[in-house]
Structure formats: C-alpha cells, structure tokens
Amino acid sequence: MALDWRKFAKSTASVPYVCVRCRRSFKRRVDWPLPETLPCSHCGAEAIRVSTKFKPPPRQKLDQWEKVSLLLRAGYRFESVNDDYPKTLAELPKFLANNQPRSIKPYDN
Ligand SMILES: [Zn+2]
Asked: Looking at the whole model, is its pTM more than 0.70?
C-alpha cells in the first residue's frame, strides 16, 4: 500500500507572495505543492512566494523595494541565511558577497 504523504503535511497553507511591480505582498491559501509564483491579484504580473519572515516595506520606499527586487532576483526568498538581511540598498553588495541563497525547495516554514 502506497503512503499518502498528504496525510502527513498540511494540504493547504496560507502563504505570502510578493509583487515587486505593485510593491505589495499578499497571502494566499494554496495547495501542496506550493506554487513558486502566482499571478498578482492586482496587476497580473508574476508574484513570488517568500518566507513568512518577509516584511514588506512601505510602498513609497522605492529604494527598499529595489533592494527586495534585487534579493529576489539573486534567489533569496527571505528565508534564514547566515547574516541578517540588509536594511538598506547600500548594504546589499556586502550581504550578497557573504551569503548564498538556499536552494529553492518546497516551503518548510
Ligand atoms: Zn502586482
């Protein structure tokens, strides 16, 4: 008899996604396996799944959103890494030099 792993993992989870174009994050209940991206409910652009540790900056803070965008493009999803995440755009190069993004894998928070 095959094991049904869905009995051991929650089959749905409320998961944060970020749309860099809108500078918004939203939570969505999604089924396992959790999609890496979803269409943004606001603009339809690709929204990226992030860790529940992600805290969206205020929408008017463009430099903060530029930092978020660069981190996402570098493969980070705001999961725990060695260093604290950079607080400013200026701190980003040092952070990128000293850390490696975790490989993207099923959500484990
Ligand atoms: Zn959007």
From this structure: yes
